[in-house]
Structures are given as structure tokens and as C-alpha cells.
Amino acid sequence: MLNKSDAQVVYDESGAAVGVSSGGETARCKFVVGDPSYFPGKTRVASRVVRAICILSHPVPNTNNAHSAQIILPQKQIGRHSDMYVFCCSYAHNVAANNKWIAFVSTTVETSNPEAELAPGLALLGHIDEKFVSVSDVHVPLEDGSKDKAFISSGYDPTTHFETTVEDVLDIYRRVTGEVPDLDTKNARLAEQQQE
Question: What sign results for the dihedral spanned by CA atoms 175, 179, 184, 188?
């Protein structure tokens, strides 16, 4: 039922999430985990993100012709309140046509002209064949999900290195199970099981 336009969370008479309906079918469950788009009225806008997706015919200049690059422009160096993120990958990763690179530049919106805010990151890319810019809201849950069994992730922030996404997943795990995930212990147990 993922990525279906008609998917809707089903709630019981107490307001607890008990399933997901789509195409006339309902999958019943003890709780529902999902992104903010599945939970209208249960999130708020925390910030806005401006993103540019750029098609290049060359690697990012000054990266030793790398097929991938990750650059973080610290806020103080570019006169902003938020960092800016640049990520690039190429045809070598099977994500672009032969001899093409895809670059992403993103940051938190701070002004009434979001696209202009991307200038420091775009300047690093050299010639841009094609550019697509979007501005989106970043939604966060209003509650932790313990009452209504609707465990909602945060929306995607401007980061490109997945640190905040991993933190969000670990937070959802804690909210659902009531336990703080101990990945070191779990990894040690897996290693022991594999040796047996």
C-alpha cells in the first residue's frame, strides 16, 4: 500500500490508528508508521527547504573528476543562519545518462527569494545544463504517537548525508517500542549468532 494516492490511515472510535485502506482493502494493524503526507491535521510546518536538481555534463570542478561528491557549506562562511548542502553523483552510479552528473543543492529557506539563496552552492557546479528548483515545507508531528498509535516521521530537511534521517528513524523506534535502540548490542548479538 506504499505510494498509493488513495491510501488512508484508518482510525477506530477512540481515535487510534488501526490500519491503512487502499483500493477497497484495509490492512489492519496495532499502529501505523508513515510520513506526514498520510496524516493530515497531525503535523505542523517546521521550516521550508529550497532544492535545486541540476544536470551536468562534467564532474563538480575541483573534485579531482570524482563521480560523486558531498560538500557542506558552513553557514558562517556563506553569511547565513543555515548550512548549505551540495551532493553530486554520476552515470557511474547508474543514476544518470552516460557522461552526465546529477547535482543537488539544498538549504533551509531564510528569505522571500529562496532560489537566490542557492547561489553559493550553484556556483560550485560550473556550467549547468538543466536546473529544476522546488520549495517544500518540512512537516513534523504534533504528538509522539503514543495516544493515537500514529507514529509520524519528520519531513525531509535540506541535508544530503542522511544523518537527520537516521536520527528520525531511531526516534520513531524509541516512540514505537519505548526503548532506546542499542545498535552496538544488537550488532554484537548478530555477530554471535553468525558464529554459532
Answer: negative
